[in-house]
Amino acid sequence: MVRIGVLALQGGVAEHADMLARIPGVEPVWVRTAGDLESTDALIIPGGESTAVGTILAHDRRGQALRELLLSRIQKGFPVWGTCMGAILLARNIRNDHRRHLAVMDIEVHRNAYGSQLDSFTVSEPIEGLEGGPFPMIFIRAPVISDVGAGVQVLARHGGQIVACRQQNLLASTFHPELTEDDRFHRYFVSFVKK
Ligand code: GLN
Predict the structure, then answer these.
(1) pTM of the model as a whole
(2) pLDDT tens across 104-121, in order?
């Protein structure tokens, strides 16, 4: 059994956990504390509000303990996938925000980059490493990945902008695979957790 945590402080936790539960050999774990994180092999940081979750991780006593453990595990190669808000939390730089959260991934994001009129939309684009054709991508007040460092592999783009990328044990995407019926991206994450 591979135990995959979903950071459960705020945001779209249940949808990720439900999708993980459909994959044979995977057990989803709701992660609220450092103790919960301890028992996991990998973590998904879901969509939500980066300001809210960032505040808990920075200022709440239990949040701080969770943050410290997560940072030290990431340095040792612990796999983390940030979706939407999760990508913002992982980013080394946020173009239009003075806050920095985990700042472990060599990417820059631009929050709410699609503006208010296009708050939510769905497209289909190929993702490198996923077979079976283009992947349905749902964007909800999404950021764009506005810059990546040399060690970051771009996995998908939409309209020329980066929407998914990977840096060794860290994966970031700006859309919401957990809101579709397509579990290929979750399976991809599970496969690299197993390696
Ligand atoms: N707009 C949110 C933020 O900036 C992210 C949106 C999402 O995760 N769906 O934190």
Answers:
(1) 0.97
(2) 999 999 999 998 766 789
